[in-house]
Amino acid sequence: MPRLFDAIREYLGTLKRSLAESLFALLIGLLIGAGLMLAFGYDPIMGYISMLKGFGIFTIEGFLAVLAIIALGLLLAAFIGAYWAKIPQALARLWRKKISGRSISLVAIVVFILFLISRMLEFLDNVELMEMLAYSVPLMLTAITFAVGMRAGIFNIGAEGQVYMGAVAAAWIGGHFALPTGLHLLAATAFAMLIGAAWALLPAILKIRAGVHEVISTIMLNWVAFFHVPYLIINRFAGVHAERTATILPTARYPILGASLTAVIFVALAACVVVYILLWRTRAGYELRLVGDNPDAARYAGINIRRAILISFIIGGMAAGLAGASQVIGRPLLGWTLPATLGTVFGLGFSGIGIAVIGRNHPIGGIFAALLFAGMLNGAKFMEYDWGISSELVVAIQGVIIIALAIPALLAMSRRGVRRLKIRRGPR
Amino acid sequence: MAFKGGDDAEEDFGVKMVELISTSEADYAPNLRTAARDPDVELIVGVGFLLTDDLVKVALEYPDKNFMGIDTYTKWTDAGGLKEVGEVLPNLMDIIYEEHKGSALVGALGALVAIHYDKPYIGGVFGIEIPVLWKFEIGYKWGADWAISWYENNYPTQYAAEPTTSIVNTAKKERVLYTYTGTFSDITKGYTTALPMYEAGAVAVYNIAGPLGIGINSVVRDIAERDGLENGPPFWIGVDANQDWINPGFVIASMMKRVDFGVYYATKWVKDNTFRDLVESEGGEITLGVGTEVAGVLTEGIMISTGPLGELDEFIEMGVKAEELTGERILLGSPEWIRGKVEAMREAQPSWMWDAVAELETKIRTGEVEVPLAFTADDIAFWRDIFG
Question: What is the CA radius of gyration of chain B?
């Protein structure tokens, strides 16, 4: 247990400064947004109250529930962070039927916390809360893509195209194969991640072999996917209606927890935790971060820089592929289909960039940033419905808040960039 | 357009309309639910076929509220297993339009204009390639083909004497230049797609990509400026609304799909308590088109702007209102000037052209001819094999 508390303390400690900065930035963003509303003749306080409805915390119960779920989530993250190395062992022992009290209790605690969260969600039946969580799932995943890239010193903005590829891959497996329950879901999810990673492999190889800058190659591949995926949907994977894929079979759908939220959120959260563990608790992850922090030192230390870059692209591609899948087999959108207009997946990759920056390029920080962004997305409709604030203005207000939140992180990044330049030039 | 319908309904039935604009398809269900939860709301309208499944979902959740979808096919979906295909929900109505018939009329008009000005082609700028647009495409091509046959039958000597540049001497499969741009928002694509069409000799280009029409219009305006033209050709053909006012003298006509009528009618039916009866008696689907009837009453929704200028005024009025609201210049001139230019442009065309289009409209109305309806991949392959 002391180990658990240490992990929590450590985590909160690193969080404190950036949290304070972010809150200050949030305040500024809110003020500018209020100014915008005033300028267009709306009451900013009422506007923001309507936006808060989108977070599902407008009622006292809702507010408490959100606090409780965040606390449970933190506990789970800290628990897994503290005992992560033991959990697979415990599972393996259980598998080999070598039952020990410790391994049972370890696995049981993780399962119990997950169960508590899902029960709470069902029990509360807070539609807006669940809707917000549903919006956050793909965003926290595409944030990983950019964040892991940045950690390895790579400006990977290819999440957008990888999301499309992952989505169509999941739609193909989910709509065109008859597989048993469970396996089907697994196959569709895994294949989407695989295709996402494969799409990320192209810019990775171009970068490693030919030195092609990843910004150029990923942007271009985004467009290739943007035109290729609708072609696939219309000409290969269409169902009854030619403008969308065949309906995902029930065996490949994540079970609905309420509103548009499905169990895919647990997979997304797990992915965030796994990426955190990979980056901060393994040797490969340490090398990857070192390459991003100081490539010269990494080279001097004999680290394989190409390998680190390759790994960052693959992790990013898998996360983006999963994000795409989450919109097709993990959310009941358009009757469980992917439209050829790509409307259900469009823009997720680019939103992920902003969310990653707000989350300080950290997979756990990304979860909170994604929740914040998702709440604003979900609250937008209330601002329009309650007060007639036009959707364009709502998007502008969201944008202002996001930019304000990103500024501290952007400043830190540019400071680091300047410092690195100075080091490169050396003392005069 | 739907907004205009709601606006008109507000005026006539004393109702109030609240709008919710979805920024992505993920917003559909949450937005519909938000409206359905409001106790004062009687009718929820979803505009666009993509809302089909979400309308079914939310209509099932809120059986006391009335739902209507424009261009939707809620009757023919199972919405991922929520209902049977073909099952009609008592509180949900689809309103669909006969775009293929309207497109046939402007296709015929375009071909006749090409004959009159001895031009080899007509053009079409399309949005994203989805089946809804196939209805437009095949209707348009079929209409052009009908007009050329009509000319051959009615004016055989002139037909035989047409110069080589006339559309009648263009190979059947090449008469309509068309491009799917893959976008409904990128206006520059409208320009870059329409420009080569006009340069190749297209007399008129049909806009089937919403705002891309602004790009098409820019091409026409540039050509007019370069050659010092006061009137077309070149022309373009408007879609959905009456767009003749945008560049009077250069828009030969518009294929009007009156979404506003759909919203207006649905509101009326809810207000006089016939909405659910109509859903039952019409099988959940209301078709608005050329000569269509609902419960025995003529209820149309597709028309082409060749008749009296009355409906043009409605849209000019919208422009005037928008100018008042934004303080920006939207209309190219005074309403009278626009009317004058549109009228002059129409009178500058030979009367047999308008007669032919009117004849086609009558024949469609009476059922003497049937405009093909392409909605599946097989349909489109079949018709493209004939018309290119």
Answer: 21
User: Looking at residue A59, what is its pLDDT?
Assistant: 65
- Residue B296 makes CB contacts below 8 A (sequence gap 6+) with none
Determine the topology of domain A25-42+126-425 in CATH: ABC transporter involved in vitamin B12 uptake, BtuC (1.10.3470)
Record the tokens describing residue B159, joined without a space: 């037909």
Respond yes or no on whether the N-terminal peptide bond of residue B233 is cis (omega within 30° of 0).
yes
* Cβ atoms A276, A151 nearer than 8 A: no
Q: Do residue A334 and residue B53 have CB atoms under 8 angstroms apart?
A: yes
Categorise residue A91: left if φ over 0, alpha if ψ from -120 to 50, beta otherwise: alpha
Helical (H) or strand (E) element with B204:
strand B202-208
- Give all domains of chain B, ordered by start, each with its CATH number: 2-97+259-300 (3.40.50.2300), 100-256+304-387 (3.40.50.2300)
- Asked if A71 contacts A395 with a C-beta cutoff of 8 angstroms, the reply is no
ipTM, 2 dp = 0.79
Q: List, in sequence order, the alpha helices (H) in B165-258.
A: 187-200, 212-227
Instruction: Write out pLDDT tens, residues A403-420.
Output: 998 888 888 777 877 776
| Predicted local confidence at residue A123, as pLDDT | 64
| Tokens representing residue A119 in the block | 């029960």
φ, ψ dihedrals at B97, nearest 5°: -120, 150
User: A181: which 2 tokens?
Assistant: 């329950």
Asked if B261 contacts B288 with a C-beta cutoff of 8 angstroms, the reply is yes
Q: Is the pLDDT of residue A426 over 60?
A: no
Give the residue ranges of DSSP H helices in B14-98.
Answer: 28-37, 52-61
pLDDT value of residue B372: 93
Q: Cα(A165)–Cα(A195) distance, rounded to whole angstroms?
A: 6
The band of A212, judged by pLDDT with boundaries at 50, 70 and 90, is: very high
pLDDT digits (tens, 9 = 90+) for A35-93: 999 999 999 999 998 898 888 766 666 677 767 777 777 777 677 666 766 766 666 66
Q: Give the nearest partner residue to A335 out of B23, B79, B131, using CB atoms.
A: B79
Nearest to A76 by CA among A90, A64, A87, A63: A87
**A332 touching chain B per CB within 8 A:** yes
Nearest to B24 among A242, A248, A343 (CB): A343
Task: From chain B, pick out residues whose CB is under 8 angstroms from the CB of A260.
Answer: 26, 29-30
pTM over 0.80: yes
